[in-house]
Amino acid sequence: MNFLAHTFLSGDDDDIKIGNLMGDFIKGNLDNEQNSLINKGIINGIILHRAIDSFTDMHPVVRKSIHRLQPKYHKCAGIIVDVFYDHLLAKNFSDYSLISLPVYSQSFYRLIQERKNEMPVNIERLIHSMVTRDWFNGYATSQGIEWSLKGISQRLRFVSGIENATEDLKRDYDLYLEEFRIFFPELISYCQDILAKQQNAKI
């Protein structure tokens, strides 16, 4: 899953949201000396991030989405599906949230700006771009998805062609939407169980 889904799946705990956003930027064992300086709530968010990635990678419905793209995009197919699913979440946000996407987005942007000093330095550019370009609302548009994929392709060390994948999304849109609607409620339930266990561990 991509940034919008990771954030949304964090529930209402700000520490969990921060940790989930940081997930791709914190490597290695969370018990090591460097990571021991991170507060427990943020650590729980990183744990949730990793659990989301594992659940998603192993899910048979997600693998159907990936398989459709693999002949053309090879090892980048999973990256593309992550972006496609964020688009489908953004486009259908009211199906999963009582808060509108614009209101949700601005609330999250305020949070990460207020607490950016708690996050790794190498995430600062991402935060600035996310806020100034309004990534979350952009995900709901084909132009926003194309821009996101183009940005990812520029960071890869090889020619991937993923910046053109919006055409694949348009061609098989109904298939991706059907798969997302099967998968995402299961992921929500999975994350709710993890969050409940983390909350009970605090008591």
TrEMBL record:
Keywords: Hydrolase, Lipid biosynthesis, Lipid metabolism. One of its GO terms (biological process) is fatty acid biosynthetic process. The keyword Hydrolase applies. This is Acyl carrier protein phosphodiesterase. InterPro entries: ACP_PD. GO terms for molecular function: [acyl-carrier-protein] phosphodiesterase activity. The lineage of its organism: Bacteria, Pseudomonadati, Bacteroidota, Cytophagia, Cytophagales. It holds the Pfam family ACP_PD.
